[in-house]
């Protein structure tokens, strides 16, 4: 078992960066820590690192998010590809802007209340039991309504996104490789708020040709002139090309 401890952090400090400072003084000033792909299982007490703003812990064996309540200055947290099953102990991270949790075991998006600065949430490719899909706690969605602008929910067996309607400031929704069944379930609830919606390789693509009211046009010169639905078709659709659909 590998624990992320202050001793481990200290052993990885570049001595040239310390100058005449003690280890404790240096740890108090440090803003970035990168311990990705280090077989870490447990996050230990790192509370000396009070100025930490960016923490890279992806590609480890972490099963619980803990001992981060001290990190009130943290803005970016990278926890992709671990073994995390529960979104917990994050509410003290009031300055958090970007949260990366892709490739874990999370079944419910929850416990993000109070994170008023959160702009990006990446929770793609959760390793869920067969037949299960990623769920959303309505209280969490409501708490993110005014802040979240980018949401990545790709490859999570999702078949409906109606509940995301509350995310009033969402500008980019990435929903690749899901089970979205009908194009109207996307347009109706997101076209007014999104600049770009990426729905690569969903079941929805099979129904597109059955929508006679939809008119295909060439992409406009600016992505941000009006909301767009960007449909990038999988490679085996050799006779079709990616296109923008305007409604």
Task: Give the tags.
247 residues, alpha/beta, Leucine-rich repeat, LRR (right-handed beta-alpha superhelix), 2 domains, eight-stranded parallel sheet, three-stranded antiparallel sheet, 5 helices, 15 strands, disordered C terminus
User: What is the 3D shape?
Assistant: elongated
**CATH class call of the largest domain:** Alpha Beta
Sheet-strand content, in percent, reads 15-25%
The parts where pLDDT drops under 50 for at least 5 residues are 212-247
Quaternary structure: single chain
Structural commentary:
- This protein has helices spanning 6-11, 15-18, 23-29, 138-143, 184-190, and strands at residues 2-4, 32-34, 40-43, 54-56, 76-78, 98-100, 108-109, 120-122, 135-136, 150-152, 172-174, 196-198, 215-217, 229-231, 243-246.
- 12% of the residues lie in helices and 18% in strands.
- It folds into 2 domains: 1-154, Alpha-Beta Horseshoe (Leucine-rich repeat, LRR (right-handed beta-alpha superhelix)); 158-247, no CATH class.
- Strand 11, helix 5 (184-190) and strand 12 (196-198) form a beta-alpha-beta unit.
- It has 247 residues and is α/β, with parallel strands linked by helices.
Which helices and strands, and how do they pair?
Blueprint (H helix, E strand, L loop, with lengths): L1 E3 L1 H6 L3 H4 L4 H7 L2 E3 L5 E4 L10 E3 L19 E3 L19 E3 L7 E2 L10 E3 L12 E2 L1 H6 L6 E3 L19 E3 L9 H7 L5 E3 L16 E3 L11 E3 L11 E4 L1
Parallel strand pairs: 1-3, 2-4, 4-5, 5-6, 6-8, 7-9, 8-10, 10-11, 11-12
Antiparallel strand pairs: 13-15, 14-15
InterPro entries: Leu-rich_rpt, LRR_dom_sf, SDS22/Internalin_LRR
Protein name: Protein phosphatase 1 regulatory subunit 42
Keywords: Leucine-rich repeat, Repeat
